[in-house]
Sequence to fold (300 residues):
Amino acid sequence: MDQTLFLGVPFHAGQGHLGTALAPAAFRESLPAAWQDLGDVAAPEFHGREAAIHHAQALSKKITSLDLRKKFLCLVGGDHGQGLGTVHGMLHHHPDLIVVWIDAHADANVPSASPTGNMHGMPLAWLLGAKEGAPWWLQRTLSPQRLLYIGTRSIDPYERMLIEELDIAVITPEEARGPEFENILRRELRRMDPKGKSPVHISFDVDALDSGLIQSTGTRVENGMSFQEVEKAFEVIAQEQRVVSAEVVEINPELGSSEETQKLCVWARDIVLSIIPTHRPAFTFPALRSAFSEEWRRSL
Ligand SMILES: [Mn+2]
Fold:
């Protein structure tokens, strides 16, 4: 990759907290100087599910318009409803895209099945082809065989049915804690892409982390992943050297202290930095990680 592009997505219409829209600005405080900042995809001035879908459309259009050849795209949200626009936009560039969704939730409800009605719990249902409530502008779908969940533990009945019927892979937090995590993850990546050629997008919802670790996110769930387990997931995926984009979502600076938000943003920046394919071998990762994030992680 010759360059990293940064896109802020002040997306909040997918759930009830306005604060997620503040995360791109918080993240920019520690933006690497070498990254090209493309600014924000502005939010519409109305609220609710239609606003979220409208914002996702604008994001998809923005991504579609970019020249991404030899470029890595980093997006910071925003709530996870933006994933609808991100994945739809990335599928324009890479029809064979693999999506790794690191998240406490499955985000695959349709409106009538959703316990909350919040759009940030729906993007994957529509991307996988569910018709109910789907945006009119959706042109591309994601094959269920090209989706992998990691850290997912809050799964509603409709989502459970979808995951089982479509045979979508889920690596649970228990598996992420276990000694076989690396092997399981490698096996799933290989199963999705036997030839090892497909580009990968990582969609990281910080609520994949255990509820006891951070305050600054809106829908915390217990029995989640540790910082180290998330880093391990990124490290193993990065070894494939085919990650083309990553997004970090659901950081809400209004719910945690400013110090925690800052540390979380720096940590998120470092794990994204660690996965950007370079011409160097993948084993540079541990050095990079220790240089940037050990100290922050210890103090979190
Ligand atoms: Mn999510």
